[in-house]
């Protein structure tokens, strides 16, 4: 196995205005999260959130610490949330086994020393997507199924944004210090997500797009509300959204995405809405 990581520095919005397509992708797009028998991650200096993926194809993988953390083990000063976007598998946390099927989540609190990953079927390996953030309290580990999620239905077919929001790792479902994660599923015929768009200075966000049909794509929009940019994305790719940036997208077909947030406010509804007519 290999543990691979990148460090991404924060960028001032005035600088991002001058970025070309290549530079925007270098700073914000995460192209290769899921590789067989590897744990890949990006450590962003926006709220020090880490986004990563683990694919235990041939055997067991271990969540190892990385040098920038200067920690004896990954969760020494951190918490982490997982959502499985692949085949059925298991995550073992300090000897306790948690079975995770497709679209099931697991929250793991600070202080757990050993986290390992396995797939139930090597021909259909698990894809464990994770977000991690610094934590000051050790909350209990908890598995969350879709049936246990807080469900919200938003949008309409007429505005092409009918969608179901599954709040999986949020403070109304499980105690966390700052990490929040959930999953939004677009209805057939709908393509727009997170519309009306918004920003929130209290926290950053990461989006992972998946269930994007073959030969289809996502156009993700980011930037200040009056200075927007777009990034074309493929299946199983993620993108970092700074606190000052909108985060919205449209696909060439229906899809699902995972949103993950880190910051100082756990109120899901804390956002500064920008109506479509006010975007530039």
Question: Can you describe what's shown?
Answer:
The chain is mainly beta and 280 residues long. The chain has a single domain (2-278), classed as Sandwich (Jelly Rolls), CATH 2.60.120. 4% of the residues lie in helices and 45% in strands. It has helices at residues 13-16, 21-28; strands at 2-8, 29-30, 38-44, 50-54, 61-62, 78-84, 89-93, 96-100, 105-108, 115-119, 128-134, 142-144, 150-154, 163-169, 180-186, 192-193, 197-199, 203-210, 218-224, 227-233, 237-241, 246-251, 256-263, 272-274. The strands form 5 sheets. A 7-stranded mixed beta sheet has the order 1-3-4-11-6-9-12, with no helix packed on it. The protein has a 7-stranded antiparallel beta sheet with strand order 2-21-18-23-15-14-13. Strand 7 (89-93) and strand 8 form a beta hairpin. Zn(2+) binds at residues 198, 200, 205, 247.
The main sheet orders its strands as 1-3-4-11-6-9-12
In the predicted model, the low-confidence regions spanning at least 5 consecutive residues are none
Largest sheet: 7 strands, mixed
CATH homologous superfamily designation = Jelly Rolls
Q: What fold name goes in the CATH topology slot?
A: Jelly Rolls
Tell me the series of helices and strands, N- to C-terminal.
EHHEEEEEEEEEEEEEEEEEEEEEEE
Derived from helix and strand composition plus strand pairing, the structural class reads mainly beta
Mean pLDDT: 96
How many structural domains are formed by the residues?
Answer: 1
How much of the polypeptide forms β-strand, as a percent range?
A: over 45%
Number of strands: 24
CATH class: Mainly Beta
The gyration radius over C-alpha positions equals 18 Å
Report, as a whole number of angstroms, the end-to-end distance: 45 Å
CATH architecture title:
Sandwich
Specify the helix fraction band: under 10%
**Approximate shape:** globular
Helical region count? 2
């Amino acid at each position: 196995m290999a543990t691979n990581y990148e460090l991404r520095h924060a960028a001032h919005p005035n600088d991002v205005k001058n970025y070309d397509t290549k530079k925007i992708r270098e700073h914000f797009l995460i192209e290769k999260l899921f590789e067989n028998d590897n744990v890949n991650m990006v450590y962003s200096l926006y709220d020090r959130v880490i986004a990563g993926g683990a694919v235990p194809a041939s055997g067991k993988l271990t969540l190892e610490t990385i040098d920038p953390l200067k920690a004896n083990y990954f969760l020494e000063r951190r918490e982490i949330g997982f959502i499985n976007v692949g085949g059925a598998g298991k995550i073992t946390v300090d000897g306790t086994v948690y079975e995770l099927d497709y679209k099931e989540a697991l929250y793991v609190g600070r202080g757990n020393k050993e986290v390992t990953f396995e797939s139930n079927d090597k021909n259909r390996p698990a894809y464990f997507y994770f977000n991690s953030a610094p934590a000051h309290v050790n909350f209990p580990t908890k598995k969350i199924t879709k049936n246990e999620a807080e469900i919200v239905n938003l949008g309409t077919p007429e505005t092409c944004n009918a969608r179901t929001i599954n709040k999986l790792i949020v403070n109304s479902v499980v105690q966390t210090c700052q990490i929040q994660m959930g999953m939004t599923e677009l209805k057939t015929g709908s393509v727009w997500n997170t519309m009306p768009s918004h920003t929130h200075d209290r926290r950053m966000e990461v989006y992972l797009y998946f269930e994007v049909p073959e030969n289809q794509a996502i156009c993700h929009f980011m930037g200040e509300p009056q200075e927007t940019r777009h990034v074309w994305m493929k299946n199983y790719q993620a993108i970092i959204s700074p606190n000052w940036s909108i985060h919205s997208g449209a696909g060439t077909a229906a899809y699902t995405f995972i949103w993950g947030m880190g910051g100082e406010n756990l109120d899901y509804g804390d956002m500064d809405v920008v109506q479509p007519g006010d975007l530039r």
